[in-house]
Amino acid sequence: MSVSVLLAQQSPESLLKAQPPGGLVAIAYQLPRFWSSKGGSDQLVAVYERSAGSVAFLVAQDGNALRATLEGHTGDLASLAESLNTETFASDQAIALTPVHIPKPWGEEIWYTGMEDRGVAQAGHRGRTVPLPWVLSALPKQLAAGRDRGIILLKILAPRAEEVFGDLYFELHEEKREVYVVTSIDESAWPDGEGAIRFGFCSEKRAQFPDDASFRAAFAESVAAYENV
Description:
Elements: E1 5-7, H1 12-17, E2 24-32, E3 41-51, E4 54-61, H2 64-71, H3 77-84, E5 89-90, E6 97-98, E7 100-104, E8 107-111, E9 115-116, E10 119-120, E11 122-123, E12 130-131, H4 132-138, H5 140-144, E13 155-159, H6 203-206, H7 212-228
Parallel strand pairs: 1-2
Antiparallel strand pairs: 2-3, 3-4, 4-5, 6-11, 7-8, 8-13, 9-10, 11-12
């Protein structure tokens, strides 16, 4: 028996709940590219296989080839994934993440959950990955408590193991929330074998200036000098 495709006007997760148990459920839906300043959307199909306490699924871009595969498919979700050469995921299993590497003057950032113009992380194992926002959109409530478009950015800061060139710079953010978890320290990244995370500017240095304006002006001059380095 072929797999028929339902059409969801919003989240496919809500439509999935209304379906009777048994067999594969395929739902087509539109995902706005919220991570891109250029806008647009992706036409997707999520195929679900439900069991006691969990939901397994795959998600792929909609199209004639996918529809033809679904129309002739009579097996389970795993065999469908093999036919499509894509990954399967489950609501009760961790999602394998394939990061994107973002170049920086001091090295690079390695984004495991990045979803923006500069890069979009992938989910799944090598050769079978799909964009992370696609995966989260298939089960936004179960996988991300409805915050699939605003998950915390998990990343690694990987500075160059060279003095001066590997120095991280200061950034000013009007609004930002971060958590740093230090799992290991590469002592070769600093000439003296010691490193640090700095929060804000040195209070003693700031006290040398009468107000914020003069401090910022002096800092801007310092930045211009550092750019030459």
